[in-house]
Amino acid sequence: MSELKNDVFLRALLRQPVSRTPVWIMRQAGRYLPEYREVRAQAGDFMSVCRNPELACEVTMQPLRRYELDAAILFSDILTVPDAMGLGLYFETGEGPKFERPVQTADAIRSLRVPNVEKQLGYVFDAVRTIRRELDGKVPLIGFAGSPFTVGTYMVEGGSSREFPTIKRLAKEAPEVLDHLMDVVAETTTEYLNAQIDAGAQAVQIFDTWGAALEADEFRRFSLASMQKIVEGLTRDNDGRKVPVILFTKGAGRLLRDLAQVDCDALGVDWTTSLADARGYVNDKVALQGNLDPATLRESPEVIRKGVADTLASYGDGPGHVFNLGHGITPDIDPDHLGALVDAVHELSPAYHS
After folding, report:
1. Catalytic one among 31, 37, 257, 298?
2. Using CA atoms, how far apart are residues 85 and 109, in angstroms rounded to an integer?
3. Tell me: the pLDDT tens digits for 80-112?
4. 169 included as an active-site residue
């Protein structure tokens, strides 16, 4: 494959010296871009884009044509894994993802098996290979998956949830059943991410959107332990380079201390925890990624620039910071405002790497 021309993102994840802070944005390929909305409308729906390697490549590349970003991220969805298990994923307008066959009983959960990842999710790996060819070494490609607990919430609740009543009841009343669900999803996810790496992903991120909704001890048993199993099983070197692993638990706060004990390379931090505090929690054991509040992008370019400056100052001097939002960019954002953010990171960050 083509030699990588810009590796500042990968070096920052490994806490190696860089001349400036790299930047990419969660959900950078998505609904805030008119060109993405056009592709999705032509495809018919979201999953039709995900399942078409050429369209997934096109929307992955779109933000890179607009902005000087330091990484591309595969266009896909965390729920491809349970879809491969036969749960019948579909998207309902205005209501988000749903499953035709959620697993809401102990028997249904115990009957789950690891699917044939290569067969069921081959379109994802084809997309990775297509994107790598299109990137031609411009920037690295990030692969990703959801954490077992986050994916499990959708599998058990049948779709999006605010309170997670069914899975929280399992955690209290049948923890061994929930252990089995976590084990099956973790094994599947390990195979899934390794296949992405084999196809060309140069870093991977595990999105743990809902893990922090658990009590601390339950978080450690169900979310943290399952992510640890995945990390332990991942291919960590490929194509002559280390493949960094990022864990992102939204709302982690002090749980960052526990997450830093997992053998990952970096932790995502949301906007509710300052990078200064996060750096103290992890004691520079891992790199940090984040963490501007996505709502800042609704403000003026001057306010965005100040937010970037404050975020960089919060992390402070030295290696190990990847600039990002504290969660995904929202659909209502003016694309020019993201341009203001990227420009500010490029202009202001070199002072922290002298």
Report:
1. 31
2. 11
3. 999 999 999 988 777 789 999 999 999 999 999
4. no
- Indicate which residue of 20, 27, 279, 305 is catalytic: 27
DSSP 285: S
Give the pLDDT of residue 38. Answer: 97
- Judge contact between 322 and 286, C-beta under 8 A: no
The answer to whether 31 is a known catalytic residue is yes
Catalytic residue among 154, 192, 281, 315: 154
Maximum distance among all Cα pairs of the chain, rounded to whole angstroms: 59
Percent of the chain that is helix, strand, coil (3-state, to 5): 50, 15, 35
Quick check: is 101 catalytic?
no
- Complete DSSP assignment for 37-96: HHHHHHHSSHHHHHT-HHHHHHHHHHHHHHS--S-EE----TTHHHHHTT--EEEETTTE
Q: Which of 37, 40, 110, 236 is catalytic?
A: 40
3-state secondary structure 296-342: HHHCCHHHHHHHHHHHHHHHCCCCCEEEEECCCCCCCCCHHHHHHHH
The answer to whether residue 154 is catalytic is yes
DSSP element (H, E) containing 248: strand 245-249
**Cα(272)–Cα(284) distance, integer angstroms:** 19
pLDDT computed for residue 92 by the predictor: 76
> Does the pTM exceed 0.90?
yes
- Residue spans of the chain under pLDDT 70: 1
pLDDT of residue 228: 98
CA separation, residue 110 to residues 3, 114, 211 (Å): 45, 12, 22
- Residues 297 and 345 sit within 8 Å (Cβ to Cβ): no
Is 32 marked active-site? no
Name the residue type at position 167. I
Distance CA 280, CA 240 (A): 32
Q: Which is the catalytic residue, given 7, 70, 77, 83?
A: 77
The pLDDT of residue 1: 64
Give the Å distances, CA to CA, from 336 to 6, 298, 310, 339, 342.
Answer: 23, 11, 20, 5, 10
* 51 secondary structure, DSSP code: T
